[in-house]
Amino acid sequence: MSNKLDEARTIINEIDKQMIELYIKRMKAVKMVAEYKLENGLQVLDESREEFLKAKNLKELDDKMLEKYYLEFFEGVLESSKDFQRELIAKYNGKK
């Protein structure tokens, strides 16, 4: 293995660790969103919010070449967030 490859993998490993920590923080906030939606009778899907977030985040991305890949990544995050909300709401509704 080359030094460049090892260096790149070390950087990726550190970033992955940080992403896990941030993902956990995000999902804790998603849980708060689910609780609010449940209490207020709101649907999990909020298309206007999703479109707003995509547009806002793409403005932060300064590499046009990465836009397609970022959207794939972020849409995955949004899907897992909605799935988690649905699971939490279903569990709560099952306890009633």
Q: Give the termini distance in whole angstroms.
A: 57 Å
Query: How many domains?
Result: 1
Q: Architecture in CATH? A: Up-down Bundle
N-to-C order of helices and strands: HHH
- Percent in helix: over 70%
Continuous helix count: 3
Apparent shape: flat
Q: What percent of residues are in strands? A: under 5%
Largest sheet: none
Q: What's the count of strands?
A: 0
Radius of gyration: 17 Å
Low-pLDDT runs: none
What quaternary form is this?
A: single chain
Overview of the structural elements:
- With 96 residues, the protein is mainly α.
- The chain has a single domain (3-95), classed as Chorismate Mutase Domain, subunit A, CATH 1.20.59.
- It has helices spanning 3-39, 47-60, 67-95.
- The protein is flat, with a radius of gyration of 17 Å.
Primary descriptors:
3 helices, 96 residues, single chain, mainly alpha, 0% strand
Brief overview, please?
The protein has three helices and no strands. The protein is flat and about 55 Å long. With 96 residues, the protein is mainly α.
Question: Secondary-structure blueprint of this entry?
Answer:
Elements: H1 3-39, H2 47-60, H3 67-95
